Amino acid sequence: MAATISCSFSLYSSLDTQKHKSFYYTNTHLSKSHHKLSKSSNPYLLLHKFHRHNSTFHICSSSQSPSESYFDDTPPKSSIFLTTPELDKFQILKNYGYVHEFEHGSLFAKVMEEDEMDITVCLLAESFAESMMLPLRYVNVLGFLIKQYMIERRGLMPNTAFLVGFYRGKDGEEEELAGTVEVSFNKKGSNTNPPSPTPPKDSPYICNMTVKKQLRRKGIGWHLLKASEELIPQMRNSSREVYLHCRMIDTAPFSMYTKAGYNIIKTDSILVLLLLQRRKHLMCKQLPIYSIPSSESDTSSSEDYPLHEFPL
Questions:
Q1: Of 10, 113, 249, 270, which is most buried with the most CB atoms under 10 A?
Q2: Which is a Pfam family this sequence falls into (predicted)?
Q3: Domain limits, the chain
Q4: Catalytic residue flag (residue 257)
């Protein structure tokens, strides 16, 4: 099925403003290296090293310089004064990894690094265009807007983070980017213009989850959700409530979220249809004190509609 998504920001007006500008694909050759798995509370991670092969991607890129990498030995230049708790949270993000073995392959999820931004932007732009049934010529425009959003959001780390999942099939296939998801941990990382119904700003919030079209219906979306839920307690010392949005028309992801333990808190008023938006459920789950990743995967329906709300 086609991907679906709803958005609360003025995408159409943004597209109208940008469509007369020139956007183009650029070929970027990314030199891939081994994923470095740091010491983790999960010893299973130490048994997995995923090789990222040399590949050429068509990247949706803007002229803006990439943001600083947040996983260097020094903190980001934009954050001159970092408290000890913030430094500790940066270290958690740097070391975090989530591994799951399927019968058909392996998934490794980690926090996105700067050199992985362009391929992640492309994945989101293509899924977004597909979900809104936009012509392919708008993919570059979407890529431009999404990249600006991601650069801004990465500037709020460690209060928010993008996770990326890399998949490798059992048949000797090359590792590839399979999906992504964004997690906000607290009020400092909350979006300034959240979708309706509005979630609490100081509570963790999961959004912008998508899975590559060719890899849907394999349970990858389920485990990206579980990876997010596993990371949240490590970044929070108080609230265990986590929120997300689901459009009313998206029955497949709704089934996945309810199976994962999410309940409807509030639903959009029918008046949002006047704003050319789809009605959405705000859903919430109470995470356990010690979150243990589930091995259960929903391979039958979790990838039919691979995108959460995109709160640009």
A1: 113
A2: Acetyltransf_1
A3: 84-239
A4: yes
